Amino acid sequence: MFRQLQLLVVLLLLALPAAGRGDEPRVLKAGTDAEVAKALAGAKPGDTVLLADGTYTEPLVVKVSGKAGQPITVKAANPRKAVFIRKGQAAQIDGSFLRFEGLVFDSRYGDCTCVRAAGKQVHFLDCEVRRAGSVDGKGGGDGVQFFDSSECLVEKCFIHHCLGSAGGERTDSHGVRFTHSHGMTVRGCVIDLASGDCVQVDPNRKGWDNILIEDCKLFGGKVPANDPFAHPRYAAGACPGENAIDTKCPAGAKTRPRITIRNCEVSGFRGPIGNAAAFNIKEECDAVIDRCTISDSEIGLRLRGPARVRVTNCVLFDNDTHCRYEDRVPQLHIAHCTFGRATGKGHGAFQEQRPSPDLRVMGCLFLSEKPKQAGDASNKTAGAAAFVDAAKGDYRLAAALALSKNGPAADHPELKVDRAGAPRAPDKTPDAGAYQFRPK
């Protein structure tokens, strides 16, 4: 009889709804700083902390973790209406399996990083991050700064006005910074007005690997007139950005860290440093730059040994120098790229600062004339009429322009598609440059 009662109790417990067993994900609502802190203190894997519209003046401090497949989510009830704003760090995240959705973080140039995170699978989705850095403080401070992290994601975020100064002079403030981090992704973001780099990997030169930056718009920017987030050391019209992406690597690492930059629009890197470049790829890393449009910069690609670099399906125009390579960069392969108009203020398509022992330029298309680096028969030249509207930066082909031979389309996996993501037919000779001609 006793065993029958035990069995009955077990069956009744199993029949209870999940909420009755205490493992149903919960929605914990909060509308004040105190309520946010209380909700986070009691949050369990799978829970969502839902934030009411309003201003939160205490930093968002998270020291809990979710589980794989059951993240803890901190979410604005209405996207970008829950604003963490203070003169100081707006968020500190120390945990894993966390999602932050639709939040705004504003540090008011409080001599700090705006959002600092360390953990595994920490995701920022549709957030805005602004006014990292300092006004004549200790130094910089970054928009979103990751330490000792892995498998994290920054997606569809707007990161801007990361500006620093010390003693009246510019200091670095990066949009996104990775330190000792692996498997990190920045996707679909707009990063603008940073006094350092839009993305910096890794200023501390600790071990890192497998960084992916894709579908982003990265701007050196010009400070607008009547700027609502004005910084007193950056006047209207100033160009604060150094680079869109800059790499630094640990010396003597057993394996080379990898970075992939894909389908990005990059422009406006014209100061405040000498040789300002959209991409400053250097030290012992392996980089793939694919399907990017790079324009209006002093240097489009600044590639420096001992980095090894592959550039595919890219369009470069209105730069002083499209590609500068230095320090005997040990491997530089450039395939199916379109080199459009240069400004005339620099070195045109290429500037060589010590030759590369493995330089290959193949299947590329050059406006007007080929440089010496493009001696391979697969490269072509064309006048402005070959493009849809070169004067306005539209370098799609106005008509087919097939290579004289098959070219490099089969050599790299990236070349299976063109700049627009359209496939290159494996049984046909591809067109020169970044785009395949697509008749209407």
Plain-language structure description:
The protein folds into 2 domains: 26-241, Single-stranded right-handed beta-helix, Pectin lyase-like (Pectate Lyase C-like, 3 Solenoid); 243-440. It is built from 3 helices and 41 strands. The strands form 4 sheets. It has a 15-stranded mixed beta sheet that branches. It starts with a helix and ends in a 43-residue tail after the last strand.
Please give the largest β-sheet: 15 strands, mixed
CATH level-four homologous superfamily name of the largest domain:
Single-stranded right-handed beta-helix, Pectin lyase-like
In percent terms, what proportion of residues is strand? 35-45%
Number of DSSP E strands = 41
Q: Class of the largest domain, according to the CATH hierarchy? A: Mainly Beta
Question: Helical element count?
Answer: 3
Helix content: under 10%
CATH architecture of the largest domain: 3 Solenoid
First-to-last CA distance: 81 Å
How many whole angstroms does the radius of gyration measure? Answer: 25 Å
Number of domains: 2
Secondary structure class reads mainly beta
Mean pLDDT: 93
**What does the overall shape look like?**
globular
Report low-confidence residues grouped into runs of 5 or more.
1-21
CATH topology tier name of the largest domain: Pectate Lyase C-like
Brief summary:
This protein is mainly beta and about 450 residues long.
Question: Mind sketching the topology for me?
Answer:
Blueprint: H1 2-15, H2 18-21, E1 27-30, H3 33-41, E2 48-51, E3 54-56, E4 60-62, E5 72-76, E6 82-85, E7 91-94, E8 98-101, E9 103-106, E10 110-112, E11 115-118, E12 122-125, E13 128-134, E14 144-147, E15 153-155, E16 158-166, E17 169-171, E18 176-179, E19 182-187, E20 190-194, E21 197-201, E22 209-214, E23 217-219, E24 243-247, E25 258-262, E26 265-267, E27 277-281, E28 286-290, E29 293-295, E30 299-304, E31 308-312, E32 315-317, E33 321-326, E34 331-335, E35 338-339, E36 348-353, E37 359-362, E38 365-367, E39 380-382, E40 387-389, E41 394-397
Parallel strand pairs: 1-2, 2-5, 3-6, 4-7, 5-8, 6-9, 7-11, 8-12, 9-13, 11-14, 12-15, 13-16, 14-18, 15-19, 16-20, 18-21, 19-22, 20-23, 21-24, 22-25, 23-26, 24-27, 25-28, 26-29, 27-30, 28-31, 29-32, 30-33, 31-34, 32-35, 33-36, 34-37, 35-38, 38-39
Antiparallel strand pairs: 10-13, 16-17, 40-41
